[in-house]
Each structure stands twice: as C-alpha cells, then as structure tokens.
C-alpha cells in the first residue's frame, strides 16, 4: 500500500511534473501506473526535503539511506523494488535532459525477500495420508489416487513428472520425454526440469499400490490394448491422461477426506519426502540426486527444515533449553 502524501505537501518539483507529462504522453502509461509514479516521486521529494538536499542533487548514499528507512519501516523488498524502478526512470530521463551528471539509483537494489521455507507435512500426517483407505469410494478411483499419493510422497516426484508417466515403456516413451515405472527393478524413471532423466527407487508400499492400480486401470475401457486408450499410467474417467491440475484437485480432496487440517498439494508431498529423508539420513547429496536438483544449494533449503525439527526436539526435551520462570 502506497503512503499518502502529507496534508500540506510542498509544491511539486517542475522537473518531476515534466517527467510525469513525458511518461504520460510518450509512454502512454495507464492512469493507475501514472498515479503510482506520482506517489513514488512525492515520497522521494519528501525524503530529499528531510535531508535538506535538492531532488536533483541526491547521491547514491542518500538513495541507500531512503531504502534502509523504507525497509525498517516494514515495506517489503518487492515494494521497494517497484519504488526504485520509478525513481530510476526519473533520473534516467533527467540525465538525458542534462539535469544530472549520473543516475544515483542505478546501482541500488532492494533488499532480498527471505525465501519461504517449503511447506512439509509432519511424518505422522504424511503416513496418515499415504495409508488412508476410503473404502466407500469407487474402487477404480481409490486405487488410482492411493497410487498417486504413494509415488508423490514415496518417490518425491514433481506433479508434472507424475502426470507424464506411461503405464508401459514403449519406443515413444523416452523419445517424447515421458517416464515409466519398472516394477521388477523397483525404479521410477522420470524426466524432470530441462528434460533430465533420473531414476528413483520405488518402495514396497508404492509398488503394491501400483500393482493394485494397474490391475484395475484399463478395466473400464475394455482392457489393456483397447483402441484409443491413452498410454498414461494415470488416467481420467474418460481414458485420457490425467492433467497436473486434476492431480492437484484429487490430492486436495483426499487430504480433506483423510482428516488433515492442511489442504495438501503435490509439491508439499515432494517437500515432505525430502525433509523426512534428510532428517533420517542426513545425506544431503543423496537427497539432491533423488530430487533431481541440478544445484545442491536448491536442496540445502531442507537443512533449514531439518534444523527447525531439531530445535523443536531440543526445546521440548533438553532440561537446559528453557529457563524456569523467574530465574536469573
């Protein structure tokens, strides 16, 4: 939310007015964008007045100081970046007009927003979802959805990788960048980001869920080899490959049926796979390979999750973790 100008603002700088007219006419900015530019330049003028420096004599050190003030005042890094973009445009134009020798905003960047930690389920909730049996549901849908949960949590697949699996490897499967399951070898072969292929172990629970699903998969469509039956491992009720969006919706519904308080999405199960594996093994390099991360720094976010888990255990169990009330 933009800060409103003060009740008695100083007269606008004539160069600011010229610039706003320039962007209005030359760039044909939308009225809303022009209003935001105006507010941002008013804010800059207020900052300049606060340090007693004319607007066109501001230096990079002043801009950095203004950024620090906005950040300490609670403005987000994204919000500051948008304001800086407006200021940068003004000084770029001023430079072209010969009004300033250099752009003081040119090399100033907004503070980086902290990366949010991936949301992961607790082990109990993840197992509860994986073991959930909706006995009253259509057996075909139940077998399919149970197998999808097992692969997402048990193998750490991305939703696109799951949707791209074929029921049986064929000449077209690998050529078209799709994956497949080798139940005999206990492996899932998938194509991740950048069409990079990787193999992931398929555990006993996932293998059993897949066998149950495969026994039912083609039944409603006339059996395996039926004309027009999609090669996809996971099918919709019309026999076409299940989309990523459909998988999201089915998983959300299943997590609610299982009684989880948090609606679950596929990437949450991938995060759960990674964090639970790391908590048990501590092998960051192995988790990187299983997730298909090209850079281990991408995987290192899970060490933060792991530390949170360890901190909770420490706080709950260690006699010296918390001082007694009133202790010095």
**Element string (H = helix, E = strand):** HHHHHHHEHEEEHHHHHH
The strand count comes to 4
What is the residue-mean pLDDT, rounded to a whole number? 84
Please, what is the CATH homologous superfamily of the largest domain?
Intergrase catalytic core
Broad CATH class of the largest domain = Mainly Alpha
Give the overall shape, derived from the CA principal axes.
Answer: elongated
- Biggest sheet statistics: 4 strands, mixed
Number of helices: 14
Q: Identify the CATH architecture of the largest domain.
A: Orthogonal Bundle
Helical proportion, percent range: 40-55%
Structural class: mainly alpha
Distance between the termini: 43 Å
The total tally of domains equals 2
Parts with pLDDT < 50 across at least 5 consecutive residues: 1-9, 323-328
- The fraction of residues assigned to DSSP E strands is under 5%
* Spatial strand arrangement across the major sheet: 1-2-3-4
Question: If you had to describe this structure to a student in words, what would you say it looks like?
Answer:
- The chain has 328 residues and is mainly α.
- The chain is 53% helix and 5% strand.
- The chain is built from 14 helices and four strands.
- It has helices spanning 14-25, 31-51, 60-72, 77-96, 123-131, 139-155, 159-163, 171-175, 204-217, 244-257, 266-281, 284-291, 296-299, 301-317, and strands at 165-166, 179-182, 187-191, 197-201.
- It has a four-stranded mixed sheet with strand order 1-2-3-4.
- The longest helix is centred in the N-terminal third of the chain and has 21 residues, at 31-51.
- It is elongated, with a radius of gyration of 28 Å.
- It starts with 13 loop residues before the first helix and ends in an 11-residue tail after the last helix.
- Residues 1-9 and 323-328 have low confidence and may be disordered.
């Amino acid at each position: 939310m933009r800060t409103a100008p003060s009740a008695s603002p100083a007269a606008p700088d004539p160069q600011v007015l010229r610039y706003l007219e320039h962007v209005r006419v030359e760039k044909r900015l939308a009225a809303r964008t022009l209003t935001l530019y105006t507010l941002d330049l008013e804010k800059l003028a207020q900052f300049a007045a606060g340090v007693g420096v004319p607007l066109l004599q501001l230096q990079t050190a002043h801009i950095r100081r203004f950024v620090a003030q906005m950040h300490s005042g609670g403005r987000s890094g994204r919000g500051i970046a948008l304001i800086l973009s407006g200021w940068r445009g003004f000084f770029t134009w001023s430079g072209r007009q010969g009004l300033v020798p250099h752009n003081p905003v040119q090399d100033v960047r907004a503070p980086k927003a902290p990366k949010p930690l991936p949301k992961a389920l607790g082990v109990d909730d993840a197992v509860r979802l994986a073991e959930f049996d909706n006995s009253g549901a259509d057996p075909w849908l139940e077998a399919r959805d149970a197998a999808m949960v097992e692969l997402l949590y048990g193998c750490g697949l991305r939703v696109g990788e799951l949707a791209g699996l074929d029921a049986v490897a064929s000449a077209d499967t690998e050529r078209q960048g799709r994956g497949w399951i080798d139940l005999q070898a206990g492996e899932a072969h998938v194509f991740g980001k950048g069409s990079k292929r990787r193999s992931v172990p398929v555990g006993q629970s996932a293998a059993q869920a897949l066998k149950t699903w495969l026994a039912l998969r083609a039944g409603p469509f006339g059996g395996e080899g039926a004309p027009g039956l999609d090669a996809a491992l996971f099918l919709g009720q019309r026999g076409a490959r299940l989309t990523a969006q459909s998988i999201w919706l089915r998983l959300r519904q299943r997590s609610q049926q299982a009684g989880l308080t948090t609606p679950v999405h596929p990437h949450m199960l991938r995060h759960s796979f990674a964090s639970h594996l790391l908590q048990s093994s501590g092998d960051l390099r192995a988790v990187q390979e299983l997730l298909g991360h090209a850079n281990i720094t991408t995987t290192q976010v899970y060490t933060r999750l792991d530390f949170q888990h360890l901190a909770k255990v420490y706080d709950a169990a260690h006699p010296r973790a918390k001082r007694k009330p009133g202790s010095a």
